[in-house]
Structures are given as C-alpha cells and as structure tokens.
C-alpha cells in the first residue's frame, strides 16, 4: 500500500476512535455522577513480519484515565438523593464485585433494598445491602448515616438503620468499567473512610463540559476530512502517474 495512504488511513482511524470517546462523553452530559473519559494519542513501534523499523512509529488511541473533577451540584429535594462533597465515592454491589460511583440518585426496589439507577444495591459501612423499612421515610446525615421513620410512627420514634459505605481510594488504583463504574485494580474492596462527607437532597451532575465536548467533536470532524483529502489526492496522483507511464 502507498505509504501516504497508509499513514492517512491510520490517522483517520485514530480520529474515529477518539470521536467515539467524545461522543460517549457528550451523550452522558446529563448523567448523574458521570466522569468524563479522557482520550489521547500514543505512539507505538511498527512491528510486523519484516524486521522492526526503529525510526518509524504508528499511533493508537488510548483512554488512560478519567477526569475526577467534581460536577455541578443540583438541589432536587428528593429524600433518597445524595451527593458527595469533595473527594469520595458511594459503594455499590455488582455481579463483578464491589464498585464505586459518584451518582446518588437512589431508589428502593421491590425487595426493599436501596439501589442506584442501574439497579445495583447500595452498600452499608458493614459491606451489606441497605434495607429500607416498608413505606419508611428516609433521611441521610452528612456522614452517611441513614435514619427511617415508619409509616404512621411517632416522629420521636425515628430509628437509625445503618450507614452508607463512603470510600476514598487512590484515583490511580481504580479502573473504569464499561458500565461507567469504577473498581479497584487489585479486585479488593476498599474500607470505609469516615472523613468523606455527603449532602442529602442534592445530585452531582456529570463533569463533562458540553461546550468543550462539542468543540472537540468539530475539531475531530475536520481532522478526519483532512485525512480523507490526503487519501483522495494520493489516489489522484497515482492515477495520473499510471496514465503517464502506460503505453498504448
């Protein structure tokens, strides 16, 4: 294959890969607790059947990390909504083990368990799912303690039913999953951190900047067009060269 076409085609493929990451970020602008995924270009050596060419490199698109900046806090007034202030994560139980999220839009499922929007049980400080009393009015405290008042109970009979497991692992030790949740690279659960604080009646929105994401999508579209123009010009030049060298 012509080297110019090969180089341009490789560049176009990398642009499409990065565009997919930006598009996913853009699609989750309104997703509570979503962390912006970062994409970069990385050089790799050219290795094939022929001997390695040390002076030539190719590129790949990689997503080494996510932006952990705090998103905008929005007051909802819902009793089961909560948002972490500063650093920290909520803990949820998934089929792949314990995972961590900043999304605090909670609900109660048919089994009476506190769950997130994906249906995964929210964990207590004891590492077990949080059970909510039937038709109980729930309140959260700043350190994650959960109080409930049963339907028809005296307001003075409010009872403490548990405490949310709030953790604060090292960001570099966590891996992002395809479901948007984060898990420890070693697969081990993180102990609760008593220093993490939260606020009830609020939800933390996505930390994706819509304007920056839109600019990135436009810039990538222009890069892709330039790569396609290079391929078209190379093809046209090859056709002209063939017509000059051809004999009737």
From TrEMBL:
It is found in: Bacterial flagellum basal body. The keyword DNA-binding does not apply. GO terms for cellular component: bacterial-type flagellum basal body, rod. Residues 5-35 form the Flagellar basal body rod protein N-terminal domain. The keyword tRNA processing does not apply. Residues 83-148 form the Flagellar hook protein FlgE/F/G-like D1 domain. GO terms for biological process: bacterial-type flagellum-dependent swarming motility. It holds the Pfam family Flg_bb_rod. PROSITE patterns: FLAGELLA_BB_ROD. Keywords: Bacterial flagellum, Cell projection, Cilium, Flagellum. Residues 200-244 form the Flagellar basal-body/hook protein C-terminal domain. The basal body constitutes a major portion of the flagellar organelle and consists of five rings (E,L,P,S, and M) mounted on a central rod. The rod consists of about 26 subunits of FlgG in the distal portion, and FlgB, FlgC and FlgF are thought to build up the proximal portion of the rod with about 6 subunits each. PANTHER family: FLAGELLAR BASAL-BODY ROD PROTEIN FLGF (PTHR30435:SF18), FLAGELLAR PROTEIN (PTHR30435). Belongs to the flagella basal body rod proteins family. This is Flagellar basal-body rod protein FlgF. It comes from Pollutimonas thiosulfatoxidans. The gene is flgF.
């Amino acid at each position: 294959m012509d080297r110019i076409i090969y180089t341009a085609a490789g560049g176009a493929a990398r642009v499409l890969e990065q565009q997919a990451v930006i598009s996913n970020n853009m699609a989750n602008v309104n997703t509570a607790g979503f962390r912006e995924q970062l994409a970069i270009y990385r050089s790799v050596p050219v290795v094939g059947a022929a001997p390695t060419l040390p002076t030539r490199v190719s590129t790949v698109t990689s997503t080494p990390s996510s932006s952990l900046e705090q998103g905008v806090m929005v007051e909802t007034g819902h009793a089961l909504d909560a948002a972490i202030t500063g650093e920290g994560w909520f803990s949820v139980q998934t089929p792949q083990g314990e995972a961590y999220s900043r999304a605090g839009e909670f609900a109660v499922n048919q089994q009476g368990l506190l769950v997130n929007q994906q249906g995964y049980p929210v964990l207590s400080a004891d590492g077990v799912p949080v059970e909510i009393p039937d038709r109980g009015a729930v309140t959260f405290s700043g350190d994650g303690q959960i109080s409930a008042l049963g339907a028809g109970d005296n307001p003075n009979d409010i009872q403490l039913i548990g405490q949310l497991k709030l953790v604060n692992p090292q960001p570099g030790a966590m891996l992002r999953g395809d479901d948007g949740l984060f898990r420890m690279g070693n697969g081990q659960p993180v102990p609760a951190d008593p220093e993490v604080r939260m606020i009830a009646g609020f939800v933390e929105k996505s930390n994706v900047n819509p304007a920056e994401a839109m600019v990135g999508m436009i810039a990538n579209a222009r890069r892709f067009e330039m790569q396609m123009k290079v391929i078209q010009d190379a093809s046209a030049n090859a056709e002209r060269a063939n017509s000059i060298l051809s004999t009737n």
